[in-house]
Amino acid sequence: MYEVFLNDHCIVIADEQEPVSSDFRFKIVNIQDDRLLRETINSFLSGDEKYLLLRGDAGRCWNDFRHFFRLLPAAGGIVRSRFGLLFIFRRGMWDLPKGKIDPHEKPEEAALREVGEETGLHQLEIIGRLPSTWHIYLSGNEKKRKDWILKETHWFMMASSGNEPLVPQTNEDIEMVKWVPEEHLDEVLPNTYASLKNLIKNLRK
């Protein structure tokens, strides 16, 4: 199963009988050919459909789905210390530190670099790999051709002593870096991105 977000809209690609558990009320589309897939994607991107569940051969459908977008790899980390989990506050939302993977850089290297740049933490240890998240956005401006981007973010669980000072990367619009005790996660979850909520909630299981 593949789950892709466009802001708070969601499109899921799953096999015909694969169970899908979600809070969303999906419109189900049985994908039979490329034409229907193209029409469904265009409907989703235009905002006509908010929650779509595409049923069929998930592997083939996913491979075809990705060809509609320019792929962009990114990496980030969920950092845990005795003080809780690390969040950044940027553009009015609670977020996790992450960023683009540079050429010839491994996801693990990019994740450590981005977390360090955005939060000031450098004494970090990767202790596990987490599921990737996928989201779509429109890139470009009036001077450049706009492209739809499909970004895969590789996530890693990281450990920190919590003793280093937190330094927000203000030139990336980060206003605050904060440790949030795990028993207080419900205070930030309503104001974080839809693509991150399940990732964070699954840490409690």
Describe the protein's architecture and organization.
With 205 residues, the protein is α/β, with parallel strands linked by helices. The chain folds into two domains: 2-66, no CATH class; 71-204, Nucleoside Triphosphate Pyrophosphohydrolase, CATH 3.90.79.10. The chain is built from four helices and eleven strands. The chain has helices at residues 34-45, 58-66, 107-119, 194-201; strands spanning 2-6, 9-15, 27-30, 51-56, 70-81, 84-90, 93-95, 98-100, 124-139, 147-160, 174-180. Strands 1, 2, 3, 4, 5, 6, 7, 8, 9, 10 and 11 form an eleven-stranded mixed beta sheet that branches. Strand 5 and strand 6 (84-90) form a beta hairpin. The two termini are 20 Å apart. The model has no long low-confidence stretch (mean pLDDT 93).
Q: Count the DSSP helices.
A: 4
Query: What is the C-alpha radius of gyration, as a whole number of Å?
Result: 18 Å
> In CATH's first tier, which class of the largest domain applies?
Alpha Beta
Span between termini: 20 Å
**Share in β-strands:** 35-45%
Determine the structural class based on helices, strands and strand pairing: alpha/beta
Helix content: 10-25%
Query: CATH architecture of the largest domain, please?
Result: Alpha-Beta Complex
Largest sheet: 11 strands, mixed
The run of helices and strands is EEEHEHEEEEHEEEH
Shape descriptor reads globular
Which whole number gives the mean pLDDT?
93
Number of domains: 2
Could you provide a short overview of the structure?
The protein has 205 residues and is an alpha/beta fold.
